[in-house]
Specification:
Shape: globular
Number of strands: 7
Strand order of the largest sheet: 1-7-6-2-5-3-4
Order of helices and strands: HHEEHEHHEHEHEHEH
Structural class: alpha/beta
CATH superfamily: Glycerol-3-phosphate (1)-acyltransferase
CATH architecture: 3-Layer(aba) Sandwich
Radius of gyration: 17 Å
Largest sheet: 7 strands, mixed
Distance between the termini: 32 Å
Oligomer: single chain
Helix content: 40-55%
Strand content: 5-15%
Length: 230
């Protein structure tokens, strides 16, 4: 029943996004209004799920006038719906296979999110060029620096790319900690398994102004420690 509701909401979301994109095409080059349709979708998905009692905190750490490299730990597909509760404008870096999922992937394409082909070096370079362009245009970019969903509740090692990018573009890193979503939907599954109290915590941004190019490991470890501390 839950997945039927979520599927119906996602199909509706796609058609609303498509309509908004067509109508506002000349005026919404960054697809901000298209992206913002995911906010009501997130509200509806969260509200319709009897397995969730979502707690969101730290929204005061978001400055809507700033551009961020956003980094979050990754536990399950549920992370996508939960992160939209921040009401932030951003572009996801998402694996290419997700763009091929009907309605979900089509919605990602409409909002101009960033496609990553894992294991393809030229694709990785393209991702960072595209991310640079968005950041320079005032649009935040969201990375899951673990590179894949965790199979346990433990946070994996972070990859370096997001932190090198933040230092290069001189934008702050905004860490987001997710808890409980991995128990809601296990890796490799599409089934809600148990009642869980998921949490999303937005942590204080880390200013990169004092970091040099070679300091990316220090920045990476600071962000990971912040997320693990929740």
């Amino acid at each position: 029943m839950i997945w039927t509701i979520c599927a119906a909401l996602t199909i509706l979301l796609y058609f609303v996004m498509l309509f908004v994109t067509i109508i506002l095409y000349p005026f919404d080059k960054q697809r901000k209004i298209t992206h913002s349709q995911c906010f009501w979708w997130s509200d509806a998905v969260v509200a319709s799920n009897p397995y969730w009692d979502l707690k969101v905190s730290g929204l005061e750490n978001i400055d809507k006038n700033k551009t961020y490299v956003i980094v979050a730990n990754h536990q399950s597909l549920a992370d996508i719906a939960v992160i939209y509760q921040t009401r932030m404008q951003f572009k996801w870096v998402a694996k290419e296979s997700l763009f091929k999922v009907p309605f979900v992937g089509w919605s990602l394409s409409l909002a101009k999110h960033i496609k990553l082909e894992r294991g393809n070096f030229s694709s990785i370079k393209k991702v960072y060029r595209e991310a640079e362009r968005w950041l320079r245009g005032g649009m935040s970019v969201l990375f899951f620096p673990e590179g894949t969903r965790s199979e346990t509740n433990e946070i994996g090692e972070f990859q370096n790319g997001a932190f090198k990018l933040a230092i290069k573009e001189k934008v702050p890193v905004l860490p987001i900690a997710l808890e409980g979503t991995g128990s809601a939907i296990a890796k490799g599954s599409w089934i809600f398994t148990m009642k869980v109290p998921p949490r999303l915590t937005v942590l204080p941004a880390i200013d990169t102004g004092g970091f040099k190019a070679g300091d990316f490991e220090q920045l990476r470890d600071m962000a990971r420690r912040a997320i693990k501390s929740v």
